[in-house]
């Protein structure tokens, strides 16, 4: 694991006693600050490699801004590379040895809570979260009626396409696009596959997403029809399976003219397509002559503090600072990470931005909030296997009813 150390200069003595976490918040100066003393603290931070790039280090910039805003601290930073997607896997190995502050994708929240590795936000941080975010986003970092983590971006996917190939009308329909040029889609990835099933097959997850006892349900007859549609897509000569992000490589090579991904690929797509770069919300698709809207899983990426941290108060404050409006703005400027702050996204700087609007339209109008309960883990391998059975032609139009019924029964039995 690559470690990058950044140390504050001129550490001084006299550590002050920590106040209760309920008093945490960037607007609440510590007793150390009020009496003119400083507190020496060490904070270990996990963040993605992209946020620590040598020539574009957003994390380091944010840490320096935090130091400036919190002169009551003299901070030694210990930065390490752990992506949001890998946070739970890494934290669970030993929560007591994990970073004081880390960034995570909200679908891992249930696991982090179960591991006792994520702290409930304090009073001032909660005010910040409520001020910056819609209720949907707040719900994405909530578990058992408590809020954990400070969102800094919505986490979903949309469509990138070549404007020289597809018109504004073309991109409204996946079927139209497949009739004109090659399109990549990750049919064997459960984070994407459900987008073609929630509407057409009445696929549901744990009731409102929080009740494991309600399980994963689907209408067998509708799933049969939807499966036949997926088979037809997989057999279309213009369909290209996006496997392990091969869709981006194919787009860069000119082998496909559209694919589905998130804001993390924006820079590479812009470089590949140049003036023909396009980003759009999700298209519709047709099953048995009826049109359905693709519906993506959505959530958030958020910053959190570890309740095992030695300096819990400073850790909680820095986690909140990572999700502040200032930090979100610089995150976009440096890496095009789309802010979740509703005031920022409504500003002139963002409201006419094609990328921002694509993601926000999906999140607000074409998404299903991904459940964060641990029972959701049962979906991924099962969905992958079903998608693979279609792309490798084990599932066909002729046996779709049999395969759909078997999968529906498997899903129903998972959380019994």
TrEMBL record:
Signal found in the keyword field: yes
Transmembrane segments: none
GO molecular function, one term: maltose binding
Protein name: ABC transporter substrate-binding protein
Record SUPFAM superfamilies: Periplasmic binding protein-like II
Residue stretches in coiled coil: none
Signal sequence interval, chain numbering: 1-32
This protein's GO CC annotations: ATP-binding cassette (ABC) transporter complex, substrate-binding subunit-containing
InterPro entries the UniProt entry points to: SBP (IPR006059)
Taxonomic lineage of the native organism: Bacteria, Bacillati, Actinomycetota, Actinomycetes, Bifidobacteriales
Sequence similarity: Belongs to the bacterial solute-binding protein 1 family.
């Amino acid at each position: 694991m690559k470690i990058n150390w950044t140390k504050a200069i001129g550490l001084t003595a006299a550590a002050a006693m920590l106040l209760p976490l309920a008093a945490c918040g960037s607007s609440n100066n510590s007793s150390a600050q009020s009496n003119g003393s400083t507190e020496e603290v060490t904070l270990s931070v996990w963040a993605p490699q992209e946020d620590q790039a040598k020539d574009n280090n957003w994390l380091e910039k944010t840490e320096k801004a935090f130091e400036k805003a919190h002169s009551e601290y003299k901070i030694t930073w210990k930065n390490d590379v752990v992506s949001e997607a890998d946070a739970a896997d890494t934290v669970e190995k030993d929560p007591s040895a994990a970073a004081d502050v880390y960034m995570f994708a909200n679908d891992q929240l249930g696991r982090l809570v179960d591991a006792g590795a994520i702290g409930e936000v304090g009073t001032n941080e909660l005010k910040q979260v409520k001020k910056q975010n819609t209720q949907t986003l707040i719900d994405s970092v909530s578990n058992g009626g408590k809020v954990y983590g400070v969102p800094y971006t919505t986490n979903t996917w949309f469509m990138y396409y070549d404007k020289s190939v597809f018109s504004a009308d073309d991109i409204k329909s996946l079927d139209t696009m497949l009739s004109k040029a090659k399109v990549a889609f990750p049919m064997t990835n459960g984070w994407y596959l459900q987008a073609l099933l929630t509407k057409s097959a009445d696929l549901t997850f744990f009731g409102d997403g929080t009740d494991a006892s309600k399980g994963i349900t689907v209408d067998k007859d509708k799933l049969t029809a939807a499966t036949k549609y997926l088979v037809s897509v997989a057999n279309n000569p213009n369909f290209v399976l996006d496997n392990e992000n091969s869709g981006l490589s194919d787009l860069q090579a000119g082998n496909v003219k559209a694919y589905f991904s998130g804001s993390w690929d924006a820079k590479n797509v812009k470089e590949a397509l140049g003036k023909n770069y396009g980003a759009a919300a999700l298209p519709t698709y047709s099953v048995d002559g009826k049109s359905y809207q693709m519906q993506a899983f959505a959530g958030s990426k958020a910053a959190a503090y570890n309740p095992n941290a030695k300096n819990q108060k400073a850790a909680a404050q820095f986690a909140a600072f990572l999700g502040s409006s200032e930090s979100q703005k610089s995150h976009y400027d440096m890496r095009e990470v789309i802010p979740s702050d509703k005031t920022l996204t409504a500003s002139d700087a963002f409201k006419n931005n094609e990328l921002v609007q694509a993601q926000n339209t999906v999140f607000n109008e074409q998404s299903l909030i991904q459940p964060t309960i641990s029972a959701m883990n049962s979906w991924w391998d099962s969905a992958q296997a079903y998608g693979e059975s279609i792309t490798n032609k084990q599932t066909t139009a002729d046996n779709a009813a049999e395969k759909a019924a078997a999968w529906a029964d498997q899903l129903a039995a998972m959380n019994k």
